[in-house]
Structure formats: structure tokens, C-alpha cells
């Protein structure tokens, strides 16, 4: 089958969750299907991206949206009522390029990732389409609005209402609807059924390296993504000071691409900010404790899957674990506030044998539950009209 993937970002390098999910879906589905890729770009494109993507795609088209078009889109959204991030990624030039691309390659099924791409395919009513919501963006925006200072909270509250309405309206243009977690599916109250397709984990994370554990506490992610920025600030400013009261020599590592100014300001003798790292597996395996103190995102966190696949004793919040489905105190430790999360870190540091027992069980949970190949098989059954196995 000829599948057309439409993405709001180029899915390489794999430093963001949407890129990682799209890349592995394309890689797996390419084993049986002909993949054509049309992706937008709001940033400089890595020269290696086309080389990597051409391994799995018959055709790759990348459309770079100029900054002034993106900013005009934001201004236009004020009057149209569409979500700002939908207008930000829409370009009439990109629309014409996509229309020509579709006419040239005649796809049999269109796969859109995120509501940001919906505007581009509304007119293609005769082609079967799948929308991967990934997460309930509206629910995440509402949580951010609740934590944001004035007047940003008003902007985010408005974006929440726009996203909420748009998520519901977008459903009618698609035959199938996907999302990462049951928790987020419950936040998008559409009449059509939403298939929960979790993220998987790359096999490289299961490879054991001969690496010394020279880092103490680790948090990873794209460090310009607002939920990660908020979590990094929470970790460095509220959780770690409690840890340092009893473990003053403990150091924190914040590893991930494009750290924002707010993250860079956290850097100190006790806080390492790495920026982009070439081998994230080595960073995981050189650490003693992993923590993902997620305050906003409710979807399945790739960072948790990766850390647990590396047999790293892990800690997170109830919000993140609702999607992960790990057994608290058995496969992962859970905290609800800074005090509890700090106590979990100290427990792991003080009880390395018990920490490794929990890490081993967490590893087994990830191995048994999360596989890109399994989830891609389910997507394949879906787009071919078969029943999706649980």
C-alpha cells in the first residue's frame, strides 16, 4: 500500500517525542508498505535527515516554512479562532506543494501526525485518513495555563479552548484516530473511537555497555519544550535542594537538545546542563537514578521507557505513570510533590541493591509491554481495515 505521512516536523534527529514516534512508525511500516513523506519544517533541517529517511521512504519532501509566514499565521489566528499552533504550521505554499505531491504519488492512505497537520487534508474526503493525536494537546495546555503567570495564563487559556474545539472538529475528517495513552483518550471526547497506540522502545536501549555510573541524578528530554523546561526547573529549584540537605555531594544532570535560557540558568557546580548528546544510551547507563517529575504532560514519556530499558532506577509522578502503567514501589517509584520525589531519590541513593531490584522489574515491564514492531502491526491492521488486536 502507498502510505503518505504528513508531519509538522522532519522526524530526524530524534530529539523530540513527535519525531521519534513518527520515525519508528515509518521505519516499521516501510517493511511492508511504500512510504511517501511530506513534512514541514520550522527550523534548520539537519543535512543527515534526508539520508536517514530515504532508507525507509520512497519519496521525501521537506517544506521549510519561512519565519514571517509562521508569524503571520499566529497573527491570523487571532481573527480566525483556530489554535495558534495550527495556524503557525499552515502555509498556502505548502498546501500547493502537498496537493501536487498527492496528485503525483496517488497515496492509498494518508497518515497525519498531530492536529497541526489537519488543515492540509480537509479537502481530501475520498481518501481514507488516519490522525495520530499523540496527546490531548488541549488538556496539556489547560495544565500549563493553570501554572503560568499573568498574562501568559490568559493566552494559554484561550489556546486551550481553541484546541479543545479543534480536536473535536478534526475527528470528522478522519477514518481512524490514534493516541498514545488511555488517559489522553479520555480527554478527547469525540464520538469516533480512538485507538490507543503506545510508544515503543528502540532496541539500542537494551544494549548493555561497560560504562561506570559517574552521574547521580538524571533528567532527559528536549530542553526547549515547555513541559520539560518546567520539570527541569521544578527538579533543580525545589526537589534537589531537599536532597542536598542530606546528600550535599549529589549532582544533577539535565541532558537534552536546545536547552532554553531558563534551563541554562540552572547550571551550577551541582547541576550539569549537557545540551545535545551524541549517545543518550551512555548517559542513561552512566547514571544512578532517573527522575521524570512531569507536571503537565500526561502521555507516555519516551524518557521513562528509555531509562527503564537501560535498567536505571526510575522515579516519576502519578500523572506520567497513568500512561506508563508501571507498578508503584515495584517497577518504579512515584512522588506527588517535591518532598516525596526528593525522598525517592534519597532512597535509591541509600539502597543501591533495592534500587537495582526495582530497576530490573521496570526493565521487564518495558520489554513486555512496549514494542514499536507490535504497535506498527496494530496500525497496519487498522489501515488495512482489519480488527486491531489488543
What is the average per-residue confidence, as pLDDT, rounded to a whole number? 93
In what range is the share of β-strand residues? 15-25%
CATH T-level topology of the largest domain: Rossmann fold
- The oligomeric status of these chains comes to single chain
Which geometry do the CA atoms define?
globular
Spans of at least 5 consecutive residues with low confidence = none
Number of contiguous helices: 16
Q: What is the N-to-C order of secondary-structure elements (H for helix, E for strand)?
A: EHEHEHHHEEHHEHEEHEHEHEHEHEHHH
Based on the coordinates given, report the CATH architecture of the largest domain.
3-Layer(aba) Sandwich
Main beta sheet, described? 7 strands, parallel
N-to-C span? 23 Å
What structural category arises from helix and sheet content? Answer: alpha/beta
Features:
45% helix; 16% strand; alpha/beta; Rossmann fold; single chain; 390 residues; globular; 2 domains; seven-stranded parallel beta sheet
Structure overview:
The structure is a single chain. By secondary structure, the protein is of the alpha/beta class. It has two domains: 212 residues, Glycogen Phosphorylase B (Rossmann fold, 3-Layer(aba) Sandwich); 167 residues, Glycogen Phosphorylase B (Rossmann fold, 3-Layer(aba) Sandwich), CATH 3.40.50.2000. Helix content is 45%, strand content 16%. Strands 3-2-1-4-5-6-7 form a seven-stranded parallel beta sheet, sandwiched between helices. A six-stranded parallel beta sheet has the order 10-9-8-11-12-13, sandwiched between helices. Helix 9 links the parallel strand 8 and strand 9. Helix 1 crosses helix 16. The longest helix is centred in the middle third of the chain and has 21 residues. The protein is globular, with a radius of gyration of 21 Å. 47% of the residues are buried.
Amino acid at each position: 500500500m502507498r502510505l503518505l505521512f504528513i508531519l509538522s516536523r522532519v522526524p530526524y534527529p530524534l530529539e523530540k517525542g513527535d519525531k521519534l514516534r513518527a520515525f519508528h512508525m515509518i521505519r516499521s511500516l516501510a517493511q511492508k508498505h511504500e512510504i511517501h513523506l511530506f513534512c514541514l519544517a520550522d527550523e534548520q533541517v539537519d543535512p543527515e535527515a534526508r539520508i536517514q529517511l530515504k532508507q525507509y521512504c520512497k519519496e521525501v519532501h521537506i517544506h521549510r516554512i519561512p519565519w514571517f509566514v509562521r508569524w503571520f499565521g499566529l497573527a491570523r489566528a487571532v481573527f480566525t479562532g483556530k489554535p495558534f499552533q495550527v495556524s503557525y504550521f499552515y502555509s498556502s505554499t505548502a498546501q500547493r506543494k502537498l496537493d501536487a505531491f498527492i496528485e503525483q504519488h496517488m497515496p492509498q492512505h494518508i497518515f497525519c501526525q498531530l492536529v497541526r497537520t489537519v488543515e492540509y487534508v480537509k479537502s481530501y474526503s475520498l481518501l481514507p485518513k488516519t490522525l495520530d493525536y499523540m496527546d490531548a494537546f488541549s488538556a496539556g495546555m489547560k495544565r500549563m495555563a493553570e501554572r503560568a503567570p499573568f498574562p501568559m495564563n490568559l493566552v494559554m487559556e484561550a489556546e486551550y479552548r481553541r484546541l479543545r474545539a479543534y480536536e473535536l472538529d478534526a475527528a470528522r475528517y478522519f477514518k481512524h484516530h490514534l493516541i498514545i495513552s488511555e488517559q489522553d483518550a479520555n480527554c478527547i471526547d469525540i464520538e469516533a473511537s480512538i485507538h490507543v497506540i503506545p510508544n515503543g522502545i528502540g532496541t539500542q536501549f537494551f544494549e548493555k555497555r561497560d560504562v561506570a555510573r559517574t552521574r547521580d541524578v538524571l533528567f532527559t528530554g528536549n530542553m526547549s519544550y515547555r513541559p520539560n523546561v518546567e520539570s527541569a526547573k521544578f527538579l533543580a529549584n525545589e526537589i534537589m535542594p531537599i536532597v542536598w540537605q542530606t546528600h550535599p555531594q549529589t549532582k544533577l544532570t539535565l541532558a537534552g537538545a536546545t536547552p532554553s535560557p531558563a534551563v541554562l540558568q540552572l547550571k551550577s557546580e551541582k547541576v550539569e546542563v549537557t545540551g545535545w548528546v551524541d549517545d543518550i544510551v551512555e548517559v542513561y547507563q552512566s547514571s544512578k537514578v532517573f527522575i521524570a517529575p512531569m507536571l503537565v504532560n500526561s502521555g507516555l514519556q519516551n524518557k521513562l521507557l528509555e531509562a527503564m530499558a537501560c535498567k536505571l532506577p526510575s522515579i516519576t509522578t502519578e500523572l506520567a505513570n497513568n500512561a506508563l502503567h508501571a507498578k508503584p514501589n515495584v517497577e518504579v517509584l512515584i512522588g506527588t510533590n517535591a518532598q516525596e520525589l526528593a525522598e525517592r531519590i534519597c532512597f535509591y541513593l541509600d539502597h543501591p541493591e533495592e534500587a537495582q531490584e526495582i530497576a530490573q522489574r521496570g526493565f521487564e515491564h518495558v520489554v513486555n509491554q512496549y514494542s514499536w514492531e507490535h504497535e506498527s502491526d496494530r496500525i497496519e491492521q487498522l489501515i488495512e481495515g482489519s480488527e486491531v488486536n489488543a
